[in-house]
Amino acid sequence: MQIYWTKINDIIEETPEVKTFLLNRPEGFIWEEGSHTHFALEGFNAGDKPNRSLIRHMSISTLPDENTIGITTRIREQCSEFKSLLRNLEIGNEVAIFKTHSNVPLKREDKSVYLLSSGVGLATFRPLVLDYFERADKINQIHSLNIESSNDFLFTNLFESAPDKKFTAEFVDNRKEYYEKVKTLAADKDGLFYVVGSDEFLVQNIELLREQGIKPEQIMLDKHEQQLPEFLSLDLSV
After folding, report:
1. Residue 69 pLDDT > 90, yes or no?
2. At what angle do helices 199-211 and 175-185 cross, to 10 degrees?
3. 7 vs 13, 14, 86, CA distance in Å?
4. Nearest to 76 by CA among 64, 68, 84, 66
5. What's residue 230's pLDDT?
6. Which of 87, 118, 189, 205 is most buried, taking the most CB atoms under 10 A from its CB?
7. φ, ψ at 5 (rounded to 5°)
8. In 10 A of CB 118, how many CB atoms?
């Protein structure tokens, strides 16, 4: 396993609770849209065993051609020890990234793509949308739907409806409206539905999509392959 140590070159305050840490791109570090990585703070590998409290699984919110690695995360006032350390990081501090993989690359199958996310989960979809804007072939359209109860919506300069590009972006601040809109989107029985958020959010979306006749193979989750059956083989007869 290769560990890439790199420095923070910028910190962007996206909203009062969300920051993006932009990291220098180490030589030889590669990734694709929809990738996640293990993000670790100094000292995580100082002992005999890795200190797991200093490691988190994070989505990369940038594309390689932006030449910087973006890690976008929510840091609440009351937060974990890891997030508290993260809050105090400064430009120039070193962090480590390793074990990078994409579970949700953009599928180009001449179908419509629906991006369903909760809160900062939208960061996973930012590179997919950028990739689509650069190359739209074999995708009918993209529709993004994000729920954020705080009303501090992320990346609104990118997630803005553009009919000429066949791209729709919607933000809602309550579950009732969100799930009504998901039902409407699920009228497309041939679409591809990408879902990113908490495990509870995933389960609720999968149940709703399955009830609307969407098949498990049409639902993309940011989970390792061995974890997918746990979510996608829900027994709807109960």
Report:
1. yes
2. 40
3. 18, 20, 13
4. 84
5. 74
6. 205
7. -90, 135
8. 22
At the fourth CATH level, which superfamily is domain 4-102?
Translation factors (2.40.30.10)
What confidence score (pLDDT) does residue 237 get? Answer: 44
Identify whether the C-beta of residue 95 lies closer than 8 Å to the C-beta of residue 41.
yes
The ranges of the chain annotated as CATH 3.40.50.80 are 111-232
Phi, psi of 193, deg, nearest 5: -115, 115
Res 125 pLDDT > 70:
yes
**Where does the pLDDT of residue 238 fall: very low under 50, low under 70, confident under 90, or very high at 90 and above?**
very low
- We find that the CATH architecture of domain 111-232 is 3-Layer(aba) Sandwich (3.40)
Decide: helix, strand or coil at residue 228: helix
Q: Which residues contact residue 22 at a Cβ distance below 8 angstroms, ignoring those fewer than 6 apart?
A: 8, 9, 10, 11, 12, 62, 68, 69, 70
